[in-house]
Amino acid sequence: MAADSPDIRIGTAEREQAMRRLSDHFAAGRLTVTEFDERTGVVAAAVTRGDLAKVFVDLPEPVVAEPVPAAPAMRRPGGARPDVVVPAVGIAVVLAVVLFLATHLWFWFLLIPVIVLARAGRSPNDREHHRRERREYRRRERRQRRGH
Question: Are 112 and 93 spatial neighbours (Cβ–Cβ below 8 Å)?
Fold first, then answer.
């Protein structure tokens, strides 16, 4: 039997590596939650290399991306972008005041730093990036169905 034969049995290390690859594809938006759950079940039950190969047949090979220099965006200390943080702080303050007046509990003001910290690291382009990834995945799926 050849060393790269699909009938070669696999071990825990290969299953863990396959799970990491699936997680990367899920994080990149190539898999839905349902697809991810189904495929992780197949990986967990896999016995041979061929069992694992079936899971990745419609997914691209992992690509080692070269680090892309960050765009020179105006940033605050800690990486927070003013165009994202300022509206978030305003909403947090208004929400905290309304909740304080409604419940007379001071801890609602703790929402302000929580919302600032939650929004500070997010890029407004994240949503568009995921949309593009999903479109590309659908295109690739259609091409495969057509036999290209």
Answer: yes
Spatial separation of the C-alpha atoms in residues 91 and 81, rounded to whole Å? 16
pLDDT attached to residue 120: 58
User: Has this prediction a pTM greater than 0.85?
Assistant: no
pLDDT digits (tens, 9 = 90+) for 20-59: 888 888 888 888 888 888 888 898 899 999 998 898 889 8
Q: b/e string for 16-45 if b means 16 or more Cβ within 10 A?
A: eebeebbeebbeebbbeeeebeebbeebee
What are the start-end ranges of the E strands in 1-143?
none
Average pLDDT (88-117) is: 78
> 13: left (phi > 0), else alpha (psi -120 to 50), else beta?
alpha
Which are the contacts of 148, defined by CB distance < 8 A and separation ≥ 6?
none
Which residues make Cβ contacts (< 8 Å) with residue 14, sequence separation at least 6? Answer: 46, 49, 52
Angle at 123 between CA 122 and CA 127, to 5 degrees: 105
How many CA atoms within 13 Å lie on the side-chain side of 50?
5
Tell me the residue length of the chain: 148
